Amino acid sequence: MLDINFVRANLDLVTRKLGERGFPMQALDRFNELDGRRRALIRQRDDFKATRNSESQEIGALMKAGRKDEAESRRAAVRDLGNQIAAAESELDAIETDLNNLMATLPNIAHDSAPVGPDESANEEIKRSGTPPAFDFEPRDHVDLGAALGLLDLERAAKLSGARFAILTGLGARLERALINFCLDIQTKRHGYQEVLPPFIVNSKTLYGTGQLPKFETDLFKLRDDRELYLIPTAEVPLTNIYADEILDGARLPIKMTAYTPCFRSEAGSHGKDTRGLIRQHQFDKVELVKITRPEDSYDELESLTRDAETVLEELGLAYRRVALATGDLGFSSAKTYDIEVWLPSQNTYREISSCSNCEAFQARRAGIRFRREQKSKPEFAHTLNGSGLAIGRLWLAILENYQQADGSILIPESLRPFMDGLEVIR
């Protein structure tokens, strides 16, 4: 959530920055209208209170002077002022509620280094790493490869759960588990993240803290209407909120956490997109990276978090590129995001496998995550960062497509073989 006092003091800047994100200006017009009415009501209430205090003093003086009848006649006017004060405060409470609800829908302000543009067409490629494989045969996609090898069963998954679910079998399931362990080992043993196994079900307050609620409820799987519980869309949600409503010792920062979880997304609004295979599923596995940092360190930490995610692809010998997202393509809570995109031979292009974001104080303000620089110093909002390290389903399919052989077999990258009991080829 944005700081409401910052929005009040910098409305023109906020209007311009949110306009660069493609955010509708009617919301800020409404903010201006509500905030103007709020200021007018505060002045009116304070004027009523000042008049009541003055009248009360004069009534007291009249009583002391023995002018009781005159004092009683003025008490009715004072009581009327009390009613007007109560009415003004009631309207103020309603306006404050409307303002808070409106603030909850405003996205984060993009960092000045984010490319300005309306959508993904304005994204800026930062770098490329590795060389896409050159095949002397027509490469097949992961669906055909996985089905032929008995690794992937989409038809039976649809029988169980509907579209956009998958069953991995035999070495397909083993490969998924190996990739989870491979990613976790790199982040914990090499990069110093603490492994966490969080709940996969969270309440609405937790989802509000990271920005999924109230705006994106249709993207979530809610368990029951009478209980505010949801399946997590990403481990970012429980990991970030571990420290909700706490004041941290600044000496502990940065806090670095990683977690494997399944993720559940309704994919509302994505009908017709990536309907084949594992690119866009309702349930998928992911290893997540989360950092809680001091404000002045967060952009250095974004660079290092992104490199931590890229290391996985480099260790597996997969070609990728890093892209800075344009203002119109940023996620709701993000001030700056790098997408990491892995090469997919079947599509002859790079596809997203990780988004690494600095949310600055946006999530921390919603969730109440603060820190103290010194024992008696004033608490400040921390900065929160998150990124996939990586999306396991997309990593799984990238292995199949990039390491396929002419006979339909799949080579196992050398660095992954210890996690597959030394297996070199899936036939």
Q: Can you summarize this structure?
A:
By secondary structure, the chain is of the alpha+beta class. The protein has twelve helices and 18 strands. Helix 5 packs across helix 12 (392-402) and helix 7 packs across helix 10 (298-315).
Task: For this entry, give a set of tags.
427 residues; alpha+beta; Helix Hairpins; BirA Bifunctional Protein, domain 2; 2 domains; 8-stranded mixed beta sheet; 3-stranded antiparallel beta sheet; 12 helices; 18 strands; 41% helix; elongated
Structural summary, described in words:
It is a single chain. The chain is α+β, with helices and mostly antiparallel strands. It folds into 2 domains: 80 residues, Serine-tRNA synthetase, tRNA binding domain (Helix Hairpins, Orthogonal Bundle), CATH 1.10.287.40; 307 residues, 2-Layer Sandwich (BirA Bifunctional Protein, domain 2), CATH 3.30.930. Helices cover 41% and strands 21% of the residues. The chain has 12 helices and 18 strands. The strands form 5 sheets. Strands 1-11-12-13-16-10-9-4 form an 8-stranded mixed beta sheet.
- Per the CATH scheme, the topology name of the largest domain is BirA Bifunctional Protein, domain 2
Stretches with pLDDT under 50, minimum 5 residues: none
- Specify the CATH class of the largest domain: Alpha Beta
Structural class: alpha+beta
Helix content: 40-55%
Order of helices and strands: HHHHEHEHEHEEHEEHEEEHEEEHEEEHEE
The CATH H-level homologous superfamily of the largest domain? Bira Bifunctional Protein, Domain 2
